[in-house]
Amino acid sequence: MCHLDNVGFSGCLARIDGFLGGTHELLFLPGSFDLYNLRKNWVQTMNIAVLCHPSAGGSGVVATELALAMVGLGHSVHMVATQVPFRLNAMRLPRLMPETQGSSELQHGEVYFHQIENANYPLFEQPLTTLAAVNTLVEVIEEFEIDLVHAHYAIPHATSALQAREMLGRTKVVTTLHGTDVTLVGLEPSFLRTTRYAIEASDAVTAVSGYLANHTNMVMGAKKDINVVYNWVDVERFSPILEASYRARFALEGEALIVHTSNFRTVKRPLDVIHTFAGIAAKQPARLLMVGDGPERPRCLALAKQLGIGQRVHFIGSLPNVEMILGVADLFLLPSSQESFGLVALEAMSCGVPVISSDAGGLPEVNVNGETGFTCEVGDTSAMIAASLEALEPGRHALLREAARARAITHFHQDVILPDYVRVYENVLKDSRLRPLEVVAS
């Protein structure tokens, strides 16, 4: 349950109840992740502040999932954003209240939300969100003795975290690069030097793909060792849904169910999705679900009607539980002109859905051509049509489905990725004085 309480130092504080104790068995994710073994090797607790975008984009999802995972390890996490992050809701939080007293296990942390509030002042044409974030962050650091600030995005979040560190003369800053903060925003002349400073001044920097790490240093000229830490996927939440009656809500028997989900920006090339689907539908019965919303949606709708496939293309808006769509899909299309990682492609793979994507950015590090799906050159819709039709051939489709799911589990499971973040935190804080983790004797 989420309670909103007024507090003097930062306006609105939302405390998510539940992370107050319990046995380690209840903390296990539904899979092979042994949280307890990781926790027992960690001998100090941390107070962590996380600065992130609250939207449904990849960076906000990664920030929230990482925060919840660190709470599961016994640390306290303070989420700082303009709104409650999209993935931070009561449905995502495990029940950890103990049934009996006297548990011998380690005590668990808590997660909080602190809202960044902007003051509208007539002198300024735009809200000064970055400065407001600094102010909120400083108050959180002082009040809760924050050891480390994890900023997701170089600008504006790392710049805000660095300003807070400068003002207080303490706390460490870890910055995670997600993509557009470097590939698009960071290369704008008005942001280039600021972005480079934010990267170089951080105590540690991670990137979500090898492509992004190399791009940052080569193109931006940043002089910084960057740790590659891939995004992970909840392989239990994102898993195949086998009930035929449920799938029948979205497609007729015998139809291939094709899915695309994005923010419908130009960089996602959603018009290519419509063209690709038209080619698929010309060869076999198929239906397309367009999940999400954004500026290109009206053009996609018009193009579908123009190509005569309007009745088989459905725009269903943004969904918090997109796994309920991906779980019954036969194919996922992602023709983006730029993707630093492609989290939604990984989520589709975890559901056992072959991915037909472009070969842009970090996508080949996720979607292996010919194994979990196919990659094509950006803008080559003819190649995407041919790849899609090959992937939908019954024998090939079964192999691709199995390989996609297996790769998600073996390479991008939380128990593979989370220790990498823990090591980054350990290295940054190795000279800091942290509180010992409380262990109750059995």
Task: Write structural notes for this entry.
With 442 residues, this protein is of the alpha/beta class. The chain folds into 2 domains: 2-232 and 414-436, Glycogen Phosphorylase B (Rossmann fold, 3-Layer(aba) Sandwich); 244-412, Rossmann fold, CATH 3.40.50.2000. 37% of the residues lie in helices and 18% in strands. It contains 16 helices and 17 strands. It has helices spanning 35-40, 58-72, 129-144, 154-168, 180-183, 192-201, 210-219, 244-247, 270-281, 297-306, 323-326, 343-350, 363-366, 381-391, 394-412, 414-429; strands spanning 2-7, 11-16, 44-45, 47-51, 76-81, 111-115, 148-152, 172-177, 204-207, 226-228, 256-262, 286-292, 313-317, 331-334, 355-358, 373-376, 435-436. The strands form 3 sheets. A 9-stranded mixed sheet has the order 1-2-6-5-4-7-8-9-10, with helices on both faces. Strands 13-12-11-14-15-16 form a 6-stranded parallel sheet, with helices on both faces. Strands 3-17 form a two-stranded antiparallel ribbon. β4, α2 (58-72) and β5 form a beta-alpha-beta unit. α4 (154-168) crosses α6 and α9 (270-281) crosses α14. The two termini are 30 Å apart.
Kindly state the number of beta strands. 17
For the biggest β-sheet, the strand order reads 1-2-6-5-4-7-8-9-10
CATH superfamily caption of the largest domain: Glycogen Phosphorylase B
Name the beta content range: 15-25%
Calculate the terminal CA-CA distance, rounded to whole Å: 30 Å
* CATH class division of the largest domain: Alpha Beta
Calculate the mean pLDDT score and round it.
83
User: Which overall shape is indicated by the principal axes computed on the Cα atoms?
Assistant: globular
Major beta sheet summary: 9 strands, mixed
Low-confidence stretches: 1-36, 90-108, 436-442
Radius of gyration based on Cα positions: 22 Å
CATH topology of the largest domain: Rossmann fold
Oligomeric status of the shown chains? Answer: single chain
Which CATH architecture of the largest domain would you pick? 3-Layer(aba) Sandwich
Kindly name the structural category: alpha/beta
Helix content: 25-40%
SS element count, helices: 16
Q: What count of domains describes the coordinates?
A: 2
